[in-house]
């Protein structure tokens, strides 16, 4: 089964991708990971991506698409895959169609902006050992201190409310139109993200198997 996972930053796509892969025994393909792999292995497309990244520029669509195309040709994709983080825009989705890649279902994990801001802005990370906490769901015993090593807990720049809101705005502008694109093809299913990750996983697997 060939799947695409959609969802705003912080909606929990990565977690659900892992659940799907474990259940269906297919690989999760995250654009960030495959670009890093292409850089490491020095492929033609990887070197092209490096030339942009070295200048601090965004990797253009044609290079990202080339890297995805190379990845989908690998043997572990013959029984299917989960695309997580690609496509991000309508032109990328159109390029995927032109490549002749048949997508069976597109699953959106839907979580409201307010919940995402609360979820992400509540995260704290130990600056010494990297253990994660959450001010609502996984509080440290002593406020501001890591239970594991006693290090100071900090909020990453990515998790600051203003940064989260800016990323959500970009998602709604650039990526959300994909819902209509795939809905018109009869491939879109929407899963409401639950407070309990296991509940979201149950709904996601049911949507895929339906």
TrEMBL record:
<feature type="binding site">
    <location>
        <begin position="85"/>
        <end position="88"/>
    </location>
    <ligand>
        <name>AMP</name>
    </ligand>
</feature>
<feature type="binding site">
    <location>
        <position position="167"/>
    </location>
    <ligand>
        <name>AMP</name>
    </ligand>
</feature>
<dbReference type="GO" id="GO:0044209">
    <property type="term" value="P:AMP salvage"/>
</dbReference>
<comment type="pathway">
    <text>Purine metabolism; AMP biosynthesis via salvage pathway; AMP from ADP: step 1/1.</text>
</comment>
<feature type="binding site">
    <location>
        <position position="156"/>
    </location>
    <ligand>
        <name>AMP</name>
    </ligand>
</feature>
<dbReference type="InterPro" id="IPR027417">
    <property type="entry name" value="P-loop_NTPase"/>
</dbReference>
<comment type="subunit">
    <text>Monomer.</text>
</comment>
<dbReference type="Pfam" id="PF05191">
    <property type="entry name" value="ADK_lid"/>
</dbReference>
<keyword id="KW-0418">Kinase</keyword>
<dbReference type="GO" id="GO:0004017">
    <property type="term" value="F:AMP kinase activity"/>
</dbReference>
<dbReference type="InterPro" id="IPR033690">
    <property type="entry name" value="Adenylat_kinase_CS"/>
</dbReference>
<feature type="binding site">
    <location>
        <begin position="10"/>
        <end position="15"/>
    </location>
    <ligand>
        <name>ATP</name>
    </ligand>
</feature>
<feature type="region of interest" description="LID">
    <location>
        <begin position="122"/>
        <end position="159"/>
    </location>
</feature>
<comment type="function">
    <text>Catalyzes the reversible transfer of the terminal phosphate group between ATP and AMP. Plays an important role in cellular energy homeostasis and in adenine nucleotide metabolism.</text>
</comment>
<feature type="binding site">
    <location>
        <position position="126"/>
    </location>
    <ligand>
        <name>Zn(2+)</name>
    </ligand>
</feature>
<dbReference type="InterPro" id="IPR000850">
    <property type="entry name" value="Adenylat/UMP-CMP_kin"/>
</dbReference>
<dbReference type="GO" id="GO:0005737">
    <property type="term" value="C:cytoplasm"/>
</dbReference>
<feature type="binding site">
    <location>
        <position position="92"/>
    </location>
    <ligand>
        <name>AMP</name>
    </ligand>
</feature>
<feature type="binding site">
    <location>
        <begin position="132"/>
        <end position="133"/>
    </location>
    <ligand>
        <name>ATP</name>
    </ligand>
</feature>
<feature type="binding site">
    <location>
        <position position="123"/>
    </location>
    <ligand>
        <name>ATP</name>
    </ligand>
</feature>
<feature type="domain" description="Adenylate kinase active site lid">
    <location>
        <begin position="123"/>
        <end position="158"/>
    </location>
</feature>
<dbReference type="InterPro" id="IPR006259">
    <property type="entry name" value="Adenyl_kin_sub"/>
</dbReference>
<feature type="binding site">
    <location>
        <position position="195"/>
    </location>
    <ligand>
        <name>ATP</name>
    </ligand>
</feature>
<keyword id="KW-0963">Cytoplasm</keyword>
<keyword id="KW-0479">Metal-binding</keyword>
<keyword id="KW-0067">ATP-binding</keyword>
<feature type="binding site">
    <location>
        <position position="129"/>
    </location>
    <ligand>
        <name>Zn(2+)</name>
    </ligand>
</feature>
<feature type="binding site">
    <location>
        <position position="149"/>
    </location>
    <ligand>
        <name>Zn(2+)</name>
    </ligand>
</feature>
<dbReference type="InterPro" id="IPR007862">
    <property type="entry name" value="Adenylate_kinase_lid-dom"/>
</dbReference>
<keyword id="KW-0547">Nucleotide-binding</keyword>
<feature type="binding site">
    <location>
        <begin position="57"/>
        <end position="59"/>
    </location>
    <ligand>
        <name>AMP</name>
    </ligand>
</feature>
<keyword id="KW-0862">Zinc</keyword>
<feature type="binding site">
    <location>
        <position position="31"/>
    </location>
    <ligand>
        <name>AMP</name>
    </ligand>
</feature>
<keyword id="KW-0545">Nucleotide biosynthesis</keyword>
<feature type="binding site">
    <location>
        <position position="146"/>
    </location>
    <ligand>
        <name>Zn(2+)</name>
    </ligand>
</feature>
<comment type="similarity">
    <text>Belongs to the adenylate kinase family.</text>
</comment>
<keyword id="KW-0808">Transferase</keyword>
<dbReference type="GO" id="GO:0008270">
    <property type="term" value="F:zinc ion binding"/>
</dbReference>
<feature type="binding site">
    <location>
        <position position="36"/>
    </location>
    <ligand>
        <name>AMP</name>
    </ligand>
</feature>
<feature type="region of interest" description="NMP">
    <location>
        <begin position="30"/>
        <end position="59"/>
    </location>
</feature>
<protein>
    <recommendedName>
        <fullName>Adenylate kinase</fullName>
        <ecNumber>2.7.4.3</ecNumber>
    </recommendedName>
</protein>
<dbReference type="GO" id="GO:0005524">
    <property type="term" value="F:ATP binding"/>
</dbReference>
């Amino acid at each position: 089964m060939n799947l695409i996972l959609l969802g705003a930053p912080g909606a929990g796509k990565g977690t659900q991708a892992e659940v799907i892969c474990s259940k269906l025994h297919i690989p999760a393909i995250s654009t960030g990971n495959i670009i890093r792999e292409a850089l490491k292995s020095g492929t033609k497309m990887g070197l092209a991506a490096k030339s942009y990244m070295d200048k601090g520029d965004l990797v253009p669509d044609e290079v990202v698409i080339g890297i995805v195309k190379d990845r989908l040709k690998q043997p572990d994709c013959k029984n299917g895959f989960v695309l997580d983080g690609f496509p991000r825009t309508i032109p990328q989705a159109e390029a995927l169609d032109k490549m002749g890649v048949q997508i069976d279902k597109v699953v959106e994990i839907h979580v409201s902006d307010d919940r995402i801001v609360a979820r992400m802005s509540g995260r704290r990370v130990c600056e010494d050992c990297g253990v994660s906490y959450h001010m609502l769901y996984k509080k440290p015993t002593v406020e501001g201190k890591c239970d594991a090593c006693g290090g100071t807990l900090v909020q990453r720049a990515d998790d600051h409310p203003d940064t989260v809101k800016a990323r959500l705005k970009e998602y709604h502008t650039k990526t959300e139109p994909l819902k209509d694109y795939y809905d018109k093809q009869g491939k879109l299913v929407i899963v409401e993200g639950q407070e309990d990750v296991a509940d979201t996983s149950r709904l996601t697997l049911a949507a895929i198997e339906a």
